[in-house]
Automatic annotation (TrEMBL):
Keywords for this protein: DNA-binding, Transcription, Transcription regulation
GO molecular function: carbohydrate derivative binding; DNA binding; DNA-binding transcription factor activity
SUPFAM superfamilies: Homeodomain-like, SIS domain
Gene3D superfamilies, per database record: Glucose-6-phosphate isomerase like protein, domain 1, Winged helix-like DNA-binding domain superfamily/Winged helix DNA-binding domain
Keyword flag DNA-binding: yes
UniProt name for this protein: RpiR family transcriptional regulator
Biological process according to GO: carbohydrate derivative metabolic process
Record bears the keyword Transcription: yes
Record field: compositional bias (Polar residues): 114-123
Domain HTH rpiR-type: 29-105
Length: 307
C-alpha cells in the first residue's frame, strides 16, 4: 500500500525540501503556475521541455517520459530533473495532475493536429461526445428521477433557481422556460445581489433548484447546506464533481458536460432544461396552456417580438 506523505518520513522530507526551495509552490498549484514560477531560473534545455508541457497540457496522458525526451530532443535525465524542480516525483504524477485539472473543469487545450484541421472531423468528434453525454444523462433519468424532479417543480408554491459562474446560463434558461409554464419562479442571485437576500425566508412549500456544474464558487456549497437545513425542498443539478451534494438534496440529477476540447459542452445540460420544462407543462397542461396564451397576448400588446 502506498504511504501518504504523513506516513512516509522520506516523502515528507522531500516535500519539505522542495517547499523550502521555492515557497511559492505547493502540491495544489497548477503545473502552468509552477512553470511560470520557475521559468526564469531554468536552463535552456529544461525551458524547452517546459514549453512542450505547456503546449500539450490537454493530452499529456498519451505521452511517456521517453516520448517527451524524444519530442524535445533532450535527455530523459533532464526531463526527470525538471519534474522534480516542479515538485513532481515522476511523470506519472504529472499526468495525474493534468487529469485532475481537467476533471475540475480547468481548460487544458490539446495542440491542433492535421486531423483537427479538418472541420468535419472536429464536428464529428464533438457530436459523438455530446451524444455520449446525452446517453449518460438519459441512463441517469431512467429510474424515475426525471418524474420526481418534474413533480417537485410543478407542486412547489415558489421556485428559486440558483446558479453561479458557468452554471448561471443554465439556471437562467431553466428560469425562462419554467416561468412560461407556471408562476412564482425566481432566478438567484439577481445582478448586484448576494445569496442571503435571495434565500432569506424560504420555507415549507418552496423549492430551490441548485445548478452546480464544475468550478463552482465556495459559496455554492454553503448555499446548498443552508437550503438543506431549511424546511424548503432542494433539487440539485450538476456534473460528477457535485455528486457529493446528492446527500443534501431531495432529488439529484447528474448531467455530464465532457467535451473533446478545452471547454465543457453544455448541450446535455440545456437538453435537461428542456426535459424539465416540458415535463412541468405536461404535468399541469390546462394551467400551463392558459399561462402560455396570456404571455403570448402580452407579447402582442407590447409588440416585443419580431413578426
Amino acid at each position: 500500500m502506498t504511504k501518504s506523505p504523513a506516513q512516509d518520513p522520506d516523502s515528507r522530507s522531500r516535500a519539505e525540501s522542495r517547499s523550502e526551495a521555492d515557497p511559492r509552490l505547493d502540491t495544489e498549484t497548477r503545473i502552468d503556475a509552477r512553470i511560470d514560477a520557475r521559468y526564469g531560473s531554468l536552463p535552456p534545455q529544461e525551458r524547452h521541455v517546459a514549453d512542450f508541457l505547456l503546449e500539450h497540457l490537454g493530452d499529456l496522458a498519451i505521452f511517456s517520459a521517453a516520448d517527451i525526451s524524444r519530442e524535445t530532443g533532450v535527455s530523459k535525465a533532464t526531463v526527470s530533473r525538471l519534474f522534480r524542480k516542479l515538485d513532481f516525483e515522476d511523470f506519472r504524477e504529472v499526468k495525474d495532475h493534468a487529469r485532475a485539472l481537467r476533471s475540475r473543469g480547468v481548460p487544458t487545450a490539446a495542440p491542433v493536429t492535421s486531423a483537427d484541421n479538418d472541420a468535419s472531423t472536429g464536428v464529428q468528434r464533438h457530436e459523438a461526445r455530446d451524444h455520449e453525454n446525452l446517453a449518460r444523462l438519459g441512463a441517469g433519468l431512467a429510474e424515475g428521477r426525471l418524474q420526481q424532479a418534474v413533480e417537485m417543480l410543478a407542486a412547489a408554491e415558489r421556485v428559486i433557481v440558483l446558479g453561479l459562474r458557468n452554471s448561471y446560463p443554465v439556471a437562467l434558461h431553466l428560469h425562462q422556460q419554467l416561468i412560461q409554464t407556471r408562476s412564482k419562479v425566481r432566478l438567484a442571485p439577481q445582478p448586484g445581489q448576494t445569496l442571503g437576500e435571495e434565500l432569506a425566508g424560504i420555507g415549507s412549500g418552496d423549492l430551490v433548484v441548485a445548478v452546480g456544474f464544475r468550478r463552482r464558487p465556495v459559496v455554492f456549497g454553503r448555499a446548498v447546506r443552508a437550503v438543506a437545513a431549511s424546511p424548503a425542498q432542494l433539487l440539485c443539478l450538476g456534473d460528477s464533481t457535485s455528486r457529493h451534494y446528492a446527500m443534501e438534496a431531495d432529488c439529484w440529477i447528474e448531467c455530464p458536460i465532457d467535451s473533446e476540447g478545452a471547454f465543457d459542452s453544455y448541450a446535455a445540460a440545456m437538453s435537461l432544461v428542456s426535459l424539465l420544462a416540458n415535463g412541468v407543462l405536461n404535468r399541469q397542461l390546462g394551467a400551463g396552456r392558459r399561462r402560455l396564451s396570456a404571455i403570448a397576448k402580452a407579447y402582442d400588446e407590447l409588440d416585443e417580438l419580431e413578426h
